[in-house]
Amino acid sequence: MWGAGRTPVCRQEVGWEVMDLTERLVRERRARLAAERLLEQKSRELFAANEKLAIHARSLSDQIVEQRQAVKSAMTEAETLKHQNHRFLEDLDRAHTAAVMAERRLWDSINAIRDGFAVFDSSLRMVTANRAWLAPFEGQPVAPGIAYADLLGLIAASGRIDLGEETGEDFVARMLARIEGDPIEPVTLKFRNGSWVKLQDHRARDGDMVCLALDITDQMRIWAAIEAIPDGFVLYDREERLLTCNQRYRDTYPASAPAMQPGTKFEDILRHGLANSQHADAVGREDEWIAERMDRYRSGGGTFEQQLSDGRWIRAHDHITPDGGRVGLRVDVTREKEHEAQLNAARNAAEAASRAKSAFLANMSHEIRTPMNGVVGMAELLCDTALNEEQRLFAETIRSSGEALLVIINDILDYSKIEAERLTLRPEPFDLERTIHEVTMLLQPRARGKGIDLMIDFDMFLPTRFVGDPGRLRQVLTNLIGNAVKFTEAGHVLTRVVGVDAADGRQTLHVTVEDTGIGIAPEHLDHIFGEFNQVEDERNRKFEGTGLGLAITRRLIEHMGGAVWVDSVPGQGSSFGFRVTLPVAEDAAPVQAPVTVRRVLAVDDQFINRTILERQLSPCGIEVTLCRSGAEALEHLAVDPPYDVLLTDHAMPEMDGVSLLATARAAGHGLPAILLSSNTGALDEAADSFAAVLQKPVLRSDLYRHLQALNAPPASCEPALPAVPADQRQMRVLAAEDNRTNQLVFQKMVRSMDLELVFAENGRIAVELFQSYCPDIIFMDISMPEMDGKEAARAIRLLESPDRHVPIIALTAHAMEGDSDQIMTAGIDQYLTKPLRKTAIEAVLIEYCPPDVRPPVVAAEDAA
Ligand code: ADP
Q1: pLDDT tens, 469-518?
Q2: Quick count: other Cβ atoms within 10 Å of Cβ 859?
Q3: Is the CB of 550 under 6 A from ligand 1?
Q4: Residue 577: CB within 6 Å of ligand 1?
């Protein structure tokens, strides 16, 4: 811009001038530009220098700040350290106090324990000891620093230790030698005051000796007790290692003893014993034995017996301990075993003797019975002949003494049978009421002789047929009713039967026999059921008996599953009872009740008899009027005559039954009458006016039958007997009997009968006669020479054709139970026991008489 404003001068001149100016201008410009650049450069350098300065200044100031802060934090730190230092000092102080207290407590505790504790330094001078450790030194100058050897000397001299045989010096020497050991062996000291201490000492690493003195008094007491027991004691741990055992245990197994070191395994001890022939029962089966023994040990042991090779018997009792170990006792039972063997031998001998005794009794009974058969049978026959008064008395006495003797023999035999447990019951259907009646009837003569009334009160609603052993029940009833008659002088004997339904068609029967006899004092009640027990007092002495009857009764009833009992009031009477549960027989039919009779006038002076009559008749719908005397009956008849029948007792005070009927007849009463008498033999002809005379006590069915017969036409109640054709042959009877007397007795007993009798001397002849004579029945004695009865019966059965069966009746003595079984298996139909009774022979002959043969006896019923 600057060029554009300037004015141009002459061209040439002007040209030179212009050129010079431009040059100068260029130069000047250049110079200015250079100056400007220099300036610019200098200003930049200045700026940079300023910048540096500023940075430096800032860094200086930062350093100052930092240093200030460092100083401040150093001051704070110093403060903190000061505090810490203070706290540390406090903590240290507290820790020190606690340490002091802990040390005190520790010492208090160490002093309080029962066991002693002490520390000795490496030169064996005492550093410290608790009270228990120092106790044995009480009263002696003992303080820290004292030497171990001095302590031993002090205690040895004090006399507090029981040194036994050892001297004080020896003791000290032994104890000093002990602590030289490594480890130091424990030692037990016994003090005179009864306490025991076990010393257990250890060397510490720095050479100190730490000593413990353990009070083991209790342990030693228990151990002394274990040592004192007479049996072996052993304890194993749960790893089957021996913990301890007493000397007795070692003595029990001397061969195993060397192995019985604490820590030894049970199996190793066993094996040691085996190797040294300790166990007799292991010989030849060692491995098996070990296995068995280990099994038993592991299963807990229990009780078992073992025999050692020296013959001793050991009973071992092993049990598991609460910690899984085993504790065992070993008792030497050799003596016991010997004793047991002796007892066994004695028992076997006794049993053999008992069997021999039973067999002897059976034989004896047979031997006694055979002649008794002659005595009693002949006496019976003799009584039936014409004798004068004195001869009759003699004959009767022979018979009754013989019978009494037989009762005693039976009792003793029965009892020995029960003792030998050879009594078996033979249940069969039977009529209980009839059995009681028969027993009562057998005792009737004796009762009549004493003027005692025998009564039976059989529960009206009870069946009469049961399944039981009639023979044994008869025996029980005979004993009870027989005793009642024996021990009663006046009054009555009443047999009462009631029943209660039991399950399965059975009845629980309660049979009581009440009497009005001498009674039994309470102190004797307990033992009269014992063997050979009789009430020993003056009143009793006059009664004979073996004292076995009630013992047999009790055993029999218990054998039947029942029970017996007795109630008694001395001077008033006794009541014996028994209970048995029996099945009712399937053929049991209700007793037939009289239907045609409606009104009965019953007369009896005895209240019980009246009650029984009423109980027997009322349930049949009969109206019964009871009178206690003839006079009372006559009064009733006078005011109310339409009775169907008069039922009167025979013997009554003032007016007896016979007079009563005579008086009634005289008064015009034509009603039928039945007389009930306990002595039908003593009746005069006047009794003929009665429609029937019944023996007391009356069997219910008999009474009904007779009442029924009163109004019924005779043909309907008693079937007419078929006429006996005169051309029928006699019954052929063969009796095999070797004994002459018995042959005679048999012959006499059947002499009034219509039969043909042949005797065989022995079994062989009987078999021959069976073939040649063809008997209808054979009576066979069992013991005969050559061939006995059983053999003969077997031979006969073999010879028989299938369509022929001859009845064989064995004649036996009251044999043992087994014998009667054998008899029956020999093919014998029935057996009769000796002494023979005429009635029994008659009954058998009637039963087995073949239809085409003339009956040898007219049956009693038919004869009436
Ligand atoms: P025995 O009659 O043979 O002496 P028992 O064993 O039958 O033997 O009886 C034992 C005893 O019990 C009898 O001796 C008697 O003292 C007593 N005794 C038994 N029954 C009666 C009874 N009905 N009344 C009184 N005493 C009895």
Answers
A1: 988 898 899 999 999 999 999 999 999 999 999 888 899 999 999 999 99
A2: 12
A3: yes
A4: no
